[in-house]
Amino acid sequence: MFSILKKEITSYLSSLVAYVTIGVFLFSLGLFLWVIPSSSILDYGYAGLDSLFSIAPYLFMFLIPAITMRSMAEERKEGTLEVLLTRPLTDWQIVLGKYLACVVIVLFSLLPTLVYYYSVYVLGSPRGNIDTGGVTGSYIGLFLLGAAFCAIGLFASSVSKNQVIAFVIAAFLSFVFYAGFDYLGQLDSLQNLSLENLGITEHYNSVSRGVLDTRDLYYYIALIGLFISLTLFVLIRQRQKSLRGKDAIFCGSVLGILVLLGIVSASTFTRFDFTKEKRFTISPVSRSIMDSLKGPVRTVVYLKGDNFSAAMKRLQGATRDMLSDLQAYSHGKLQFEFIDPLAYIKALPDSDQKAAYDSLQVRGIVGEPKSVKSDNGVTQMLIFPEALVDYGGRDIAVNLLQTRIGLSDEEVYNNSIQNLEYSFSSAIKKVTSGGKPIIAFTEGHHELTDLQLNYAMKSLSDGFEVGRLNLKTVPFDVLMKVKLLVVPKPDSPFTELEKFKIDQYVMRGGRVLWAIDQVNAELDSLQRRGGEEMSFPKQLELDDQLFTYGVRINYDLIADLSCAQIPVATGNVGGQAQIQMVPWLYYPIFMPLSKNPIVKNLDGIKGEFVSTIDTLAIKNVKKTVLLASSPNNKNLTAPHIISLQSIEQEPTIKEFQNPTRPVAVLLEGTFKSDFLNRPVPPGLTEHVQSLPESKPTKMIVISDGDILKNDIGSDGSPFPLGYDHYMQQNFGNKNLLLNIADYMTDDSGLIDLRTKEVQLRMLDRPRIRSEKLYWQLINNIVPLGLLLTFAIFQHYFRRRKYAR
Question: In the beta sheet, which residues pair with residue 552?
């Protein structure tokens, strides 16, 4: 077999056709990757070779048939096949020798493309900012694809004496197996047959990311084994009219081994993630969710359209990859598809278009205007960065785009990619879970009203049972069924009995979200009273209890230069009031800096009249600051006069240069009871044993109840939580609440998926702008130069060898 291998390689590399074929392949690849804008690595902007691995398969459909077409066809045409068969070689040694020679030639053709890797390595920002492991894994995928095409090409060469016909058959079969099954699977009558699994694309796309799944590896082995067996069969039939016993046994053994491999691969599989951050490795908690699916889950992704920017395409591709990875562990129960909603809506009659758009909005699919840079300038387009997860008639929207103030588009989209596993796993778990955890908002102390909490409760209702609860009347055994108790901006004192119920609820492992305003201050009240009022401390009688748990909410207010704006009348022209948006220092915007999964990568959180929080050294209680003011803040102790006239005064920067002040704290551990060594308060009508110390549990304290409040329009309808209708801007309040709910109610560690990191790898754009032509020439000329150099030396050594 080795002699056949050596002979084939030497023969092929001694012909001019070989170098012309490989040269055309490298030249075409260079143009696609470095010159043509739509597929150019330089224009894409990311430090990777994704374009190489998406374009190379189509060029392989011409390169590899050109390599393999002469393997068997030329032997038969020249009559040398009969001579070859008289040698002491078995049929399978001849076939395998020729096949391996073709594979080596394909590898030889790919070697010059390492210049592309070097170029991206040098152009990375910083230098070397490329995922070498991921590129290595992708090359493995490209090698497996080339090996499969070689097997197909060898078979095509065996069925014809004419090299051109062999080339055409090989190219046709390569296309059919690469993309043909995908097209067939799109037909309405064949959509349920999953024909795409028979095609190469489904498996190549998985491996070309840098992930080797043993099921994909088996597919390539099976495909290669099938066509090599067919080639062997054709070779035997050309020599004799029927199979001999040992030949039949050999072919049957090959097919039997392939079937056995298929059974083993389908039942147990392993995945090897070559990427540096293991970004395609699904966490155990997500695997558990996928493995436990009891019925089909359908996911429709609406992030599809034309003229997407590079960052949008990257998010779209990452979404497809994540769903494919989750699907691998779902036993076929997770299905997904991508839909262009604009194309769908435009295809409808004009009278139905608005109704279709409104129906998407009702289900949480909302279009967002985005600016996209192009050669013709900046164009505006509408994208739908959402997906809809459906199970048993119930659906839940998944937001794919995690915006954040102050970040570039690349950073925003990269953060969104990091959050994909959590977003989909959380949504699938919520939509498929039977019993929902209960979240109760307290009432009876002039807390936020149902209208003010409308959007908070509505947002939580997708995954939780949400309602109100009065601590004065609720039986303790009913309180213990609550997974998360929310205290939303109370305005009147708590009795000792109510505090006792909360305390013993915590002692038994209950979780509490305290959203407390310690100072009485409201903008509406300020405007009604002529623009000035006295802010004064509230008497909620919760200080001692919170102190015991490890925090103290101070009786003060934060004025912060990082703040929202409010409308103020600045004059009157022609009988019309002139309204101007001005910064309001008492509405701070908190930019989350903590790596805790509750707040990681969240957009700015808007607060209203916020106090500071002090943490206390309490044994066995871990404190994590979730939100804090900016360094440009000022502390005002209550009572304090608040006046709208202050907006006319320029803040003194020196007064606002202070350390950051915590406003939201996570407490985790075992808490001491506030009623330790104290009698049970009177009025308790049921027997509740007073526990001195809690089970391991957690609570969150936020010194602003308005963080949970949605604005209300002039017509009495609520705005979305976190949406400032004056500034017409969304803040991260809604996502903060949803993350808190997940963190506090789920002990599986699902929320920890939000800590997943995916490194942003960009090219050095300024360097590319100044050196673009240089790198285009390097990557188009150097690979051809290397090929030409090898050809010259090979020709020289061959002449020298035979001249003797």
Answer: 614
* Cα Rg of the chain, angstroms: 34
pTM: 0.80
Q: Cis ω on the peptide bond leading into residue 681 (within 30° of 0)?
A: no
- Please answer whether residues 628 and 666 qualify as being in contact, where contact means their C-beta atoms are separated by less than 8 angstroms: no
Which DSSP symbol is given to 560?
Answer: E
- Residue 602 CB-half CA count within 13 A: 28
Q: In this structure, how many other beta carbons lie within 10 angstroms of the beta carbon of residue 434?
A: 5
Residues paired with 211 in a beta bridge: 273
Q: What is the pLDDT of residues 165-194, one digit of tens each?
A: 999 999 999 999 998 877 776 666 665 666
What band does 106 get if pLDDT is binned at 50, 70 and 90?
Answer: very high
CA 429 to chain centre: 17
- Burial of residue 700 (CB within 10 Å: 0-12, 13-18, 19+) is buried
Q: Which residue type, as a one-letter code, is found at position 624?
A: T
Q: What is the pLDDT of residues 575-608, one digit of tens each?
A: 676 778 899 999 999 999 888 999 988 889 999 9
Helix or strand or coil: residue 250? Answer: helix
Which residue type sits at 489? K
Sign of torsion, CA 705 706 708 712?
positive
Distance, C-alpha 321 to centroid of its chain: 8
- Going by C-alpha positions, the residue among 538, 543, 542 that lies closest to residue 556 is 538
Least Cα distance to 550 among 653, 623, 488 occurs for 623
Convert the pLDDT of each residue in 311-355 to its tens digit. Answer: 888 899 999 999 989 988 888 899 999 998 888 888 888 778 888
| Confidence category of residue 251, pLDDT binned at 50, 70, 90 | low
Across-strand partners of 729? 724
pLDDT, tens digit, 9 for 90 and up, residues 36-63: 988 899 988 889 998 999 999 999 999 9
Question: What's the pLDDT score for residue 424?
Answer: 93
Q: CA dihedral in degrees (184, 190, 191, 195; nearest 10)? A: -60
**Above 90 in pLDDT, residue 514?**
yes
Cα separation, 638 vs 128, whole angstroms = 55
Scanning the structure block, which residue is given the tokens 């490989």?
Answer: 22
Burial status of residue 377 (CB atoms within 10 A of its CB: 0-12, 13-18, 19 or more): exposed
Name the 3-class secondary structure at 624: strand
The string of DSSP letters for 699-729 reads EEEES-GGGGPPPB-TTSPBPPTTEETTTTE
**Pair 441, 407: CB distance under 8 Å:** no
- Phi/psi for 473 (5° steps) reads -110, -15
Report which residue type is found at 106: V
Closest CA to 151 of 78, 36, 258: 258
Q: Which 3 state secondary structure label does DSSP give 158?
A: helix
Residue pair 112/16 in contact by the 8 Å Cβ criterion: no
- Report residue 797: phi and psi, to 5°: -65, -35
Q: Are 391 and 297 in contact (CB under 8 A)?
A: yes
Q: Rounded to 5 degrees, what are φ and ψ at 65?
A: -60, -35
Q: How much of the chain is in helix, strand and coil states, percent to nearest 5?
A: 50, 20, 30
The answer to whether residue 669 scores a pLDDT higher than 60 is yes
Q: How confident is the model at residue 214 (pLDDT cuts 50, 70, 90)?
A: confident
pLDDT at 443 (0 to 100): 95
Tell me the H-state helices in 511-599. Answer: 523-528, 543-549
Interstrand relation of 124-125 and 762-763 (parallel, antiparallel or unpaired): antiparallel
Return the pLDDT at 87. Answer: 64
CA distances (Å), 551 to each of 409, 606, 634, 792, in order? 38, 22, 21, 79
Cβ atoms of 427 and 325 within 8 Å: the answer is: no
Determine contact, residues 27/55, Cβ cutoff 8 Å: no
- 761 near 47, Cβ under 8 Å? yes
Q: Which amino acid is at 443?
A: E
Nearest residue to 438 (alpha-carbon basis) of 478, 402, 410: 478
